[in-house]
Fold this protein.
Amino acid sequence: MDIQNFIQNFAEQFDELNTELTPETRFREVEGWTSLVALLVITMIDDEYGVVLPPEEMRKTQTIQELFDLTQSKL
Amino acid sequence: MYNPFSLLGKTILVTGASSGIGRATAIECSRMGARCVITGRNMQRLQQTCHALEGNGHILIIADLSKQGEIDTLVDSIPNIDGLVNNAGIGLNKPISYIKQEDLENVFQVNTFAPILLTKALLRKKKINKNGSIVFTSSISAFESNFGRAVYGASKSAIMAYMHYCARELAGKPIRANAVHPAMTETPLIYSGTLTEEDRQRDMMQYPLKRYAKPEEIAYAIIYLLSDASSWTTGTSLIIDGGLSLL
């Protein structure tokens, strides 16, 4: 798993993105983040990495790096 | 005691009776005097439902209704019925851009194809008595369009359409067909998805009645549709949503 690739997949879930995403980005604060984007991200992670994130664990992540680490820990 | 909603003397087949709305429906039907034939895939949980039924003479049959052979065996092994509750179902929360053929096959197999084929098999073998009633557990998702519910909603909408055709084609027998359309109900189905407890609490607050349904609150509506109280009701969709669709 590669963080840059992960960020790219993450970014693709937004209809429109005016912020540059980095591993440190607190993704829930990004403009355009909605419950639909959250569902898209969960589904993307399942589809791309074969990881089903438990919703309670995903809720605790704040930055893209943390979400990446959580995903990687479940591989 | 006078009770037009009684199911005394009726035999009712309930699918998906091992948990959730199916389990509550079987239990409440037995309390209203019915003899229940309960079916599901999980022996242990189905036995738990069976133990919770009131009265005697209930029948438990393990069957995976996604297999034609098991539908046939079920139909051959049960007595004639007065009511059929096509309830077994599965959920899926997936945005449109990620839908796979496999998702469609899984969801439609359980939510749509199985009830269509079970109903057909029961009719072909003349297992549904005159004045019988068929109830489908559809969903509010047949009318709504919440994010992630496209496949689930399409499967529940399809079963509603099938209910309409049953109502029309079987009216001459007469056998009635109706559907219930619950919104979020406290069952294992809603705890298996992508929502956190916090999401659920927030979601509940959107409902005018400020909570989700209890399974028995859906079962009571199914009982009405099974009973002679609804003998002039066919082709109807009963929305049970705590007021959600008023918004």
In short: The two ends of chain A are 9 Å apart (CA to CA). The interface with chain B takes residues 35-36, 39-40, 42-44, 46-47, 55-56, 58-59 of chain A (CB under 8 Å). The mean pLDDT of chain A is 93. Residues 4 and 54 of chain A are 23 Å apart (CA to CA).
